Amino acid sequence: MARGLLLSSQSRTDTANILLASFSKIPRKPCNASLAFPMYHHYHHQPRSSSAQHPIDMSKYREAFSRRMAMAGLKPHHRIALGVSGGPDSVALCVLTAWWKTAGLNADNGGLIDGLLAIIVDHGLRAESKHEANVVHHRVSEMGIRCEIAHCDWPNGRPKLGHLQEAAREMRYETFHKICAQHQIGVLLIAHHADDQAELFILRMSRNSGVLGLAGMPFTSQIFSTHTHSSNTVPLNYGILLVRPLLEFSKEDMYKVCQGGSKDWVEDPTNQSPLFARNRIRMSLTDLSSSAFKSELQAVISACRMTRLYIDQVCYSLINQAVIIMDHGYASIDIKILNPSNIVDICLCKFISLVLQFISQRQRPIRGRALKLLLDYIRTFPCKNSLTAAGCYLCPDPGSRGSRILVCCSVNCPLPLKMEVFQSRSDQEQECSVFYELEEIIEDGKYHARQLVPNASNVHFLDVTPEFVLTEAKRLNIISESTYRNIIVLQKEETNRFKSKAEVTTNSNKKHEVDFVTTFGKLFELGNICYFMNRFIITWELNDKITGGAFSDFFTYSKDLGGESQNYCCVSCVVGHNTRPEVRNMCESDWLYLAELSKHPPSDDFQLQGTTSSSEMGQMMEKRTPCLHYASVSAQKALLLLKSIPVAARRSMPVLVNQKGQLLSIPTVNFSHCPCLMVHAEFKPKIPLGGGHSSFI
């Protein structure tokens, strides 16, 4: 969060003058860049002389902003949140968004702009951060923007310096997501601009990123919370749409917009600290401030973005044509339709990554040896072998003669299985309205993006390895020799500073451990909803009122109960009234148990005669323990369904067991040990296929 140095505009309110007067009393001290968290001191800073001498034309900024908002599919009536730090970038975002909203709606609500919320995240890493957040809150509120401050808690202690920026970013976006969900807002605007893209380009060049990484930050992208927000029936983890409408603007533009809007901002002295890679790159880029260098650097970034836009479109087309997602949680890839031998490596790698990340719900990038193995595997026709990689198990589809590949979630990956349990909520209708509005926005954004997808002949870096991207850009006259040399120098400087970090691996002994992430501190209680491995949504309930219809699919009745229900409790049933089931993945012993259970069919005299009274039927049910008969027939039907599901896919299917480990239900094949127990499971991965909508226009 940008904090510290207070910049004043030409005009300000009396309240702001009082605040500034109080800040000016604080003695100024030089900032020690070697400190992890230097003290922040506020003092006056006059507007830049060039801006003071020449009036700022706000119309060009407003027009550019309106155009980008339309390209994102956004209209002034949509509910929107802003990520605000108080720095010049986010203040400029507030100025332009407030104008765009009011110009489009021509109305306000008691001095506050309707449908606009600014979110200030106080990371709580410094003693003065709370006070600074209040100052920013005051200024943003004066613009007519409703504002909310979120204070972060660090239960495991403050993050270490080496992980500080990453930890703060994760906390910030999780907070954004939570507050947007609370306020039923589906869109979040962030103030990243062209200079941020340039810094990221150099940073990723130093990490040997390919053209997909060098494309930088997307213009729009869906982000998904690590925690699920639920409704009455199913969790609505539609994510929020992150939009960066200022990517065409420079840092200098940010200052001009603030000054043109007569708004104050704050600067963060830690932005000058060489401890952080972005700061070092930013200061180096400042030394190379010629307009030619900046223009050519943005041109090569734009070429990378066009390449990424083309690759994404190719991958989505391949997914629609060659991939079938099965309800039991696995995917089938038709190799004949895919025709991988005619697909360039970079497109095929991206395609494979998207499918595997969806099935495994592990969003880690697939790189190096694993990606090469997958590339060779999918290009081998017919497919005859199996492969485990990136949290997935790949094998030929039985009966396809190697023309189809099955992609199943591997339960033998080093990550622990995850079970998230949460309570249902009553605001389903409101959440659904946000979901449908977001779908409409995304579809409009996709329409604009499709208009800008280049032809293959205009895509420059499809066959270029990471180390030759700049060389190819120079050959195509996108950049000059001097710009090429300057970028190489920056890249080498940062590469020499970069120290690789050892990957943290999970102890293999814990690979079958179930990690209970219980939002409300409870296990899988009756009436709750479970998200298993981020893939299956599970609900369950007990019904102690049994009607003839409960058995109608399993046994033939000649007695009409007349709609009456019977109180029923089976003495021998493994489902008790105090059951709190646990969820795990299916294993071979479950299959064997079903096979044994299916060998005990119901006796012939279980068919009830028409002369049997309701009370006699209840006694007979208790005497004959019909749950065992019900379970036996249910097992037979489940085995028939399981035969149609590949063995590899069965292993990741959820099963419910009681606290003694006894099998209660396999909901994906409709097996239940008792008619009282009703379980529903749906394959609904938390992050959708393709990782959600994103656009690099």
Describe the structure.
The protein is an alpha+beta fold. Among the domains are: 5-197 and 204-273, HUPs (Rossmann fold, 3-Layer(aba) Sandwich); 544-675, no CATH class. It contains 21 helices and 25 strands. The strands form 6 sheets. It has a 7-stranded mixed beta sheet, sandwiched between helices. β3, α5 and β4 (146-151) form a beta-alpha-beta unit. α7 crosses α17. The relative contact order is 0.11. Residues 80-283 form the tRNA(Ile)-lysidine/2-thiocytidine synthase N-terminal domain.
Question: Would you summarize the structure shown here?
Answer:
The protein is 39% helix and 15% strand. The chain is an alpha+beta fold.
Alpha-carbon distance between the termini?
A: 27 Å
- Structural class, by secondary structure, is alpha+beta
Query: In CATH terms, what is the architecture of the domain at 5-197 and 204-273?
Result: 3-Layer(aba) Sandwich
Strand content: 15-25%
**How many E strands?**
25
CATH superfamily of the domain at 5-197 and 204-273: HUPs
Largest sheet: 7 strands, mixed
CATH topology of the domain at 5-197 and 204-273: Rossmann fold
Tell me the overall shape: globular
- Binned, the helix content reads 25-40%
**Which blocks of ≥5 consecutive residues have pLDDT under 50?**
1-51, 229-235, 500-522, 553-569, 602-614, 616-624
Number of helices: 21
Rg of Cα set = 30 Å
